[in-house]
Design goal:
The complex is a heterodimer of chains A (about 425) and B (about 150).
Chain A (H helix, E strand, L loop, with lengths): L29 E2 L2 E2 L1 E2 L10 H13 L10 H21 L7 E4 L2 H16 L5 E5 L8 H10 L2 E5 L9 H7 L4 E7 L11 H10 L3 E5 L11 H4 L3 E5 L10 E5 L1 H6 L10 E4 L4 E3 L13 H15 L3 H20 L4 E4 L8 E6 L4 H9 L3 E2 L1 E3 L4 H7 L4 E5 L6 H17 L2
Parallel strand pairs in A: 3-15, 5-6, 5-7, 7-8, 8-9
Antiparallel strand pairs in A: 1-2, 4-10, 9-10, 11-12, 13-14, 14-17, 16-17
Helix pairs in contact in A: 1-9, 2-9, 3-4, 10-13, 11-13
Chain B lengths: L1 H6 L2 H8 L12 E7 L4 E10 L2 E10 L2 H14 L4 H16 L24 H16 L4 E3 L2
Parallel strand pairs in B: 1-4
Antiparallel strand pairs in B: 1-2, 2-3
Helix pairs in contact in B: 2-3, 3-5, 4-5
Chain lengths: ~425, ~150
């Protein structure tokens, strides 16, 4: 019996994006007595049936440790785990499976690079360049390693629209800049950064580039070789897989010379009390028994996404974002935070003097799930002079009706706070 | 919709719109900063004591309607009260927000916050000011967090 998931969908990519909603059982439920309108996808997205099935199959019939046993189940688990790695590699067009390191998610991926590469590369006087729009998980790991090494963390400013000030970014790139860490898409503003341009500039300055791709993966097809990035970090749970699994893509030449991040089983070839010999890539960075089911699920998620026409997804989400922006601006006191020219499906806003937290509670009573707060991007909130925003974020399964429901919920909030 | 009206009662909306005792006390005896990291509520509480009485109490900060109204209602209520009485009120408020029985009678107008307990994610918004008050009266640290 084969251990791997069924073959990905064959044939022409799906272009009827609206039809995909049926694949997500989590969406088809009542919340607070109302049909659920799930608009918190930038925090975490729902899983489609093929992903859920793959998880259940793995956990039910193929559960065993990987790379360990000679028995049948261990061999099936290993095949499923490694098969998923290969499909993820192909999905992001990495050159080799040795460049795909499984992690718990984007945060762990960035911590891995900050600790391992940062710890060995950075010294006093060196700089790590980030942007003002980064998520805390692309700020704090660098702060930690800067404290340890005496390097300095430098934020590149953003404009009133929430776009990166590319000229300022370029000015801040100096011979002291050893690492550039930048988000592909901002979780708080939706801004899509001109990544290839930034990467080229950073490389020209001799810096290594890590991309936080958590928010980009669900919205676009990412090709790490076309981007020419050195590292690309992402999470399964924002791209229709479960929590607890993510990936660090790393250029092999860099991963190869980096010291291990964590020690334990799997990451070694031989251990003695004098010295241990590290395992080859990517296992050097996968200490301990991994999240096998999570990896298999992420493999199923990229199969699912691989069967969809992403131009159609982009168009669908852009139309939703435009529609939602229009509906929102009909409301008294609405202000959109983040008006970049290139935006993914993220709509961050404030509504008059009503606190985002109150908005969140009121629309929740209408069955509408949005995120409220600082979105783990406090510097962004500070930049725009707001303590918090409400954020509706779209996935491929959202509809205009979801947006209408949000608009109705917000009208209710305006009535209550009239 | 009835449930929402129960959370956002008129008293709460009124105190949010027009918070009482909003501002600083320059010669405060105790200043405590309270933060609710989940939603970014931030408030600073100023207490001026006269023996064991709260001679003056004010607050400043930003937050949701529940946290602003709770701060406002609290300052209105405990100004002039004794430290002991205020500590007992803290217990009654805490019970009201996290318990299931009818709000204690001594709460009076503060019972407007009873609807919050149906919204577990919002209990911290309502209790922030009271945590700050308890810390201020205990004279301990100058910062409280609901986390």
């Amino acid at each position: 019996m084969s251990a791997s998931a069924p073959a990905p969908r064959r044939g022409a990519p799906i272009t009827d994006i609206a039809s995909l909603r049926a694949d997500f059982p989590g969406l088809h439920q009542q919340v607070r007595g109302k049909p659920l309108a799930y608009l918190d996808n930038a925090a975490s997205s729902q899983c489609p049936v093929p992903v859920l099935d793959a998880m259940l199959r793995q956990q039910k019939m193929n559960h065993a440790n990987v790379h360990r046993g000679v028995h049948e189940l261990s061999s099936r688990a290993t095949d499923a785990y490694e098969g998923a790695r290969e499909r993820i590699r192909a999905y992001i067009n990495a050159a080799s499976g040795t460049e795909i390191v499984y992690t718990r998610g984007t945060t762990e991926s960035i911590n891995l690079v900050a600790s391992s590469l940062g710890g060995s590369l950075l010294g006093a006087g060196d700089e790590v360049l980030v942007t003002e729009m980064e998520h805390h998980s692309n700020i704090v790991p660098w702060q930690l390693v800067c404290e340890r090494t005496g390097a300095r963390l430098v934020p590149a400013p953003i404009t009133e629209r929430g776009e990166l000030d590319v000229d300022a970014f370029e000015r801040l790139l100096t011979e002291r800049t050893r690492i550039v860490a930048v988000g592909h898409v901002s979780n708080a503003l939706g801004t899509i950064n001109p990544l290839r341009e930034l990467i080229d500039k950073a490389h020209a300055a001799g810096a290594v580039v890590l991309v936080d791709g958590a928010q980009a993966m669900p919205h676009m097809r990412v090709d790490v070789r076309a981007l020419d990035c050195d590292f690309y970090a992402f999470s399964g749970h924002k791209m229709y897989a479960p929590t607890g699994i993510g990936v660090l893509y790393g250029r092999e030449t860099l991963l190869d010379r980096m010291p291990p991040y964590q020690g334990g089983g799997e990451m070694i070839l031989t251990v003695s009390f004098d010295r241990s010999v590290w395992n080859s890539l990517p296992y050097k960075f996968e200490a301990g028994t991994p999240n096998v089911t999570g990896a298999v699920a992420l493999g199923a998620a990229v199969d699912y996404l691989g069967g969809i026409d992403f131009d159609a997804v982009t168009e669908h989400e852009r139309a939703l974002l435009d529609y939602a922006s229009e509906r929102l601006l009909e409301l008294d006191g609405a202000r959109i935070i983040g008006t970049a020219r290139h935006k993914a499906g993220v709509l961050s806003f404030v509504l008059g003097s009503i606190h985002a937290h109150d908005l969140g509670t009121i629309v929740d009573r209408e069955g509408v799930a949005i995120r409220t707060g600082h979105h783990c991007a406090m510097p962004v909130m500070e930049r725009f002079g707001v303590p918090a925003t409400a954020r509706a974020s779209f996935a491929l399964y959202n509809s205009r009706e979801d947006v209408d429901r949000l608009a109705a919920g917000l009208r209710k909030a305006l009535e209550i706070f009239a | 919709m009835n449930e929402l009206n129960d959370l956002y009662r008129e008293v709460i909306l009124d105190h949010n719109r027009d918070p009482r005792n909003f501002g600083e006390i320059e010669d405060a005896d105790r200043v405590v900063e309270g933060v609710n990291p989940l939603c970014g509520d931030k408030m600073t509480l100023y207490v001026k004591l006269d023996g064991d009485r709260i001679a003056d109490v004010r607050f400043k900060g930003t937050g949701c309607a529940i946290s602003v109204a709770s701060s406002s209602l609290m300052t209105e209520r405990v100004r002039g009260a004794s430290v002991d009485e205020s500590m007992r009120l803290y217990d009654s408020v805490h019970d009201m927000l996290t318990g299931s029985g009818a709000p204690s009678e001594d709460l009076d107008k503060l019972a407007a916050l009873a609807g919050v307990r149906e919204y577990p994610t919002r209990v911290k918004c309502a209790s922030l000011a009271w945590h700050a008050l308890r810390t201020a009266l205990a004279g301990g640290e100058d910062r409280v967090s609901t986390e």
